[in-house]
Each structure stands twice: as structure tokens, then as C-alpha cells.
Amino acid sequence: NITKITPDDIYIRPDTAYYMNTDWDGVPNTNYWSNVDEETPNEDTDYNRTNSGTKHPAKSKFTGSFEKKLWYIKSVKVYNRGKKEENYSGHKFKPYIIVVTTTKFPPYIIIVESAPADYTELTLDYQTISYEWTQNPYNNSDWGWDAIDNLKFGSYYYNEYTNVCNIRETQCYCVITGKPDYYYEYTISNDDLYTFEFYHNEASSLSN
Questions:
Q1: For 36-82, how does the pLDDT look when each residue is reduced to its tens digit (9 = 90+)?
Q2: What pLDDT score does 195 carry?
Q3: Residue 53 falls in which region: left (phi positive, over 0), alpha (psi -120 to 50) or beta
């Protein structure tokens, strides 16, 4: 008998914001992260606002606490929820992550910033977008927990044209998804009953 065990996702909600005081106003909280950390979006109750996307992409940037697990990581996915305040075209956003890696020999700190190629057009109503990374962009290999320890996440907000309007972000979070485990049990009956248990992490051709 083969049983598939899928681990529960880890949700990382912001508890720290970085370098947002130049491009952003926090409404009503000036620490920024507490305006976007809710599990259920509360829209205009609290949010962060920017109109700086005409100069350069305004970036929200957060980290959050989480509990490490023993399973292997399948993917990292970032969700952002935002809108524009006026009906001008060219106002866009997309998720991104920052992976910080420290090499041992020699001891360099390497910072890799990764985002999808395409932006999503903002609308007058809030919309949620997401992007999933199935590999660590630092080395294009499977994710490890050390990379998650130093992970930052957020969104780029960009204005393609000269019409300036405020953009709001009301929710941002990161989801860590684990690879499924497969459990098999064989029972051998003789004079006594013995049970042997085996574990296999990735299932290639196995099925329930």
C-alpha cells in the first residue's frame, strides 16, 4: 500500500519592512508591514501608498518569521494585492524576491533579486497576483532552508507613462510549499507478524 503525505504550506506574513520610507506612505501605520500582513485582505482599512513609480519601480520589501520543517521545499510563491487610485494606463506591478547567500571560501555575501519578466496592469479595484519560484534563483537548484532564512519579498510598482497617480498595496505574503512524501508499508506473516516501513521523498512514477 502506498500513501501520499502532502505537508501543510507555510505562510510567511510580514513582520519587518525595509527601506520603504523614501517612496511610500503607510496608512495608517508608519511601520508599513502591519498595513499588509492580514490573512484576509481588508482593502482600504490599512495599506501602503506610492506614486514614485515614474522615477523608478517603487518596491515594497518585507520579511517575516516562520518555523522550519523537516520536509524538502517544492516552491516559494509571493502574493501581492494592489490597485491604482485613478484610471490612467501603464500602472503595473509584479512580485519579486531577494535571496541572500553567504559563501564560505571566500566569505562573500551574494544578493540575487528575481522577478517574472512581465508586469500586470493595475486596475481601480484591488486584484491579487502571484508568482512561483520552483528553484532558488541564486544557483537554479532546489530550495534549501538556508535560503529561506534570508528571504525578502514584495512587489515592484511601476508607471510606464507620465500620468502620475497613487498606487496602493493592501496585502503581501509568501508561501513555502513542501514536496510530498510517499509511505509504503509491507506486512509479512509467518509465525509472528512483522511490519517494515520505508520512506521515499519524491514519487516520480509512484501513484496511489
A1: 999 999 999 999 999 876 667 899 999 999 999 999 999 999 999 99
A2: 55
A3: alpha
In the predicted model, what is the mean pLDDT of residues 115-144?
Answer: 96
Task: At 180, list the grid cell.
Answer: 510530498
Q: Which residues contact 178 (CB under 8 A, 6 or more apart)?
A: 6, 7, 8, 9, 10, 69, 71, 72, 73, 74
Amino acid symbol at 111 = I
Residue with grid cell 522577478, as numbered in its chain: 115
**Site of grid cell 490597485:** 83
CA dihedral 43, 41, 167, 176 (to 10 degrees): 180
What's the 3-state SS for 90-120?
Answer: CEEEEEEEEEEEECCCCCCEEEEEECCCCCE
pTM: 0.85
Quote the cell numbers at residue 179. 514536496
As a whole number of angstroms, the distance between CA 134 and CA 131 comes to 10
In degrees, rounded to 5, the angle at the alpha carbon of residue 24 between the alpha carbons of residues 155 and 27 is 105
